[in-house]
Amino acid sequence: MEGKGHNLWLKVTAALSAVAFGLCLWMAVATFSGAGMPGCSASGGCGSALSSRWAMVLGVIPVSALAAGLYLVLTAILAVLALDAAKGREKLLWAAATILSGAIAGSAAWFLGVLAFELHTLCIFCLAAHVAGLSAAAGVLLLGARLNPAGRRTAAFFCGIALAGCLAALQLGGIGGDSRRGGTTRDPLPYAALDCTPCIGNPDAEHVLELLFDYRCSHCRDLHPLIREVVERSGGRLAVLLCPTPLSTACNPYVRATVDLYKGSCELAQIALAIWKVDKDIFTIFDDWLFACEEDAWTPREPEEAMRYASSLVGEERLREALSDATVRQSIALYCELFGRTFSSGGGGIPRIICGSGWIMPEATDADGLEAELSEAFGLGLDHDRL
């Protein structure tokens, strides 16, 4: 019975490893293609995790692809052991499985920490893969105890931990990679119309960038004040076109999600652009209000609330007249096209900043960092202006 029970749990452990392999392979394909994961938004959760720099190693290799390879090897080892096909190599195979288990445990700890403390988000698919992988690792440690002494198992396990530490060191050091996610497009990108798009700074400035953002996106809210500060610092050399780009499936055909996590963002974008058409000065007031905190916390505005406030600023009749203008929806369609064209270049996150045919998804948390990112990505030299 002990032998049968041991073999049963060995098969269960192999199955858990296979589940983790499938999930990681799925995420690797999503990272390569930029297609996203079902039910995940482009700016939060799995979308944010899979489009961040932490999803890559050396700037080109998806971490999920490495994990898929690791789980594939572990699954194969466990399958060989479960089928009694090791032919006297059981100790060697269990040692290899233990090393892989240490790598799994160390990598899970690292990436769970990144999700919690760096990205501040929750990725359901990542968590599911880690749970399945950690369960398989625990199974390996328990089932291999009868063939390998504790000292050998401990050494093998910490060897795997060391491998995970090397991965973390590569990511922290940014060796061979870029701290930004971005790229360039082969064909020229359409340009947002100056007369229909809100602008920070002088639209005749030397450098005019386009910012794609969503009024229900927390990352976009964090970037908003930094953009204004960088424009003010530029001394008239820089302007930024504010392109409200809804991540709602209701009006953005490039967002792939089974659940509309940004419901209402289409209406918020339309109201904001309508305000701009009516009164450009009042737009700044409305734009700030959409991203304003209440009681030290920010909650996205609802369309009904935004309509009431916008009507109080410019009058209901003028607002509805502007909303009926075809250029409002045409502008949003153009911004969504910009999102789709840059999305296909290798990342699904937002906010993103476009300059010519190049684009980045900035990760800066202050104006100095944003200046440095823009200068490095687009050759603007903004971070040198104040030296």
Description:
- The protein is of the alpha+beta class.
- It has two domains: 2-173, de novo design (two linked rop proteins) (Up-down Bundle), CATH 1.20.1440; 184-384, 3-Layer(aba) Sandwich (Glutaredoxin).
- 58% of the residues lie in helices and 8% in strands.
- It contains 13 helices and eight strands.
- It has helices spanning 2-33, 45-51, 63-82, 90-119, 124-143, 150-173, 218-233, 265-278, 280-290, 303-314, 316-323, 326-343, 367-378; strands at residues 56-57, 61-62, 181-184, 199-200, 207-213, 238-244, 352-355, 358-361.
- Strand 7 (352-355) and strand 8 (358-361) form a beta hairpin.
- Helix 8 runs parallel beside helix 10.
Which fold name corresponds to the CATH topology of the largest domain? Glutaredoxin
Strand order in the sheet with the most strands: 3-8-7-5-6-4
Domain count: the total is 2
The biggest sheet, with number of strands, parallel, antiparallel or mixed sense and barrel status, is: 6 strands, mixed
Assigned CATH class of the largest domain: Alpha Beta
- The oligomeric state is single chain
Q: Figure out the total of helices.
A: 13
What shape does the CA trace take? elongated
Provide the CATH architecture of the largest domain.
3-Layer(aba) Sandwich
Instruction: Point out poorly predicted stretches.
Output: 175-180
Q: How far is the first residue's CA from the last residue's CA?
A: 76 Å
Nearest-integer average pLDDT: 85
What is the name of the CATH superfamily of the largest domain? Answer: Glutaredoxin
| Classification by helices and strands | alpha+beta
Number of strands: 8
H-E string: HHEEHHHHEEEHEHHHHHEEH
- Could you tell me the radius of gyration in angstroms? 25 Å
Q: Into which percentage range does the β-strand content fall? A: 5-15%
* Helix content, binned percent: 55-70%
